[in-house]
# Entry
Amino acid sequence: MTPVIETRALGKVYAAGTPAEVVALRDVDMRIDGGELVSIMGPSGSGKSTLMNLVGCLDTPTSGQYLCGGVDVASLDAEARARLRLETIGFVFQGFNLLSRMSALENVAMPMGYAGVPRPERLQRAREALDSVGLGDRAAHRPSELSGGQQQRVAIARALVNRPALLLADEPTGALDSRTGEEILGLFKRLQASGQTVVLITHDPGVAEHCDRVLEMHDGALHEQPSRHAEATP
Ligand code: ADP
Ligand code: MG
# Structure
């Protein structure tokens, strides 16, 4: 089976060759298969967001290779890369990033505008996505009329609306109290149970505990933690 994403010796150096040079990623080999719930854990500054930006086709590596659904992203021009991003990856951020003047439904429908989906289908799919995160009854509310946890669920519905192969979340519970954070993690687990591939980026070991696999970043290098299932076997 083709992995959803695969990196080979992926590297990123910021401000290369200047006194401000930062080696943010070192030879990262990572493979995520369909249906996995994986966390990428590491302290602040370890390179998590850099890796997310590369995996999300928001930035380009300085060395190594990135295959997204088997496609070598470096072989694409900017337009093809943007299309791949839109069709393959749904982003969730710590700060929700919702548009305050729009209703929940309009926020969720928005990415489909760029994908050229006709309006009636857009609204229908946005309703379904809101239903899938348990917010069908809040469609007409604006973000300011929703709790933090509800706003994050709207953002997750928006990330899902183009039916991406990968849901990529950077500190999705970072702005939430611990109980609401648990609810959001429960939602990610339900999405995985329905077949969605999910990558959670976090500095919180409590979040990583919910995942099948934990990848740890330290100083730009990525290491797989021993599987808990393997440990349980005598
Ligand atoms: P994390 O998300 O784990 O906190 P980042 O990927 O944001 O880590 O940062 C990794 C390293 O790269 C840090 O040393 C950070 O200061 C540096 N860095 C991140 N973005 C940039 C940038 N645009 N320019 C220069 N250095 C950067
Ligand atoms: Mg970060």
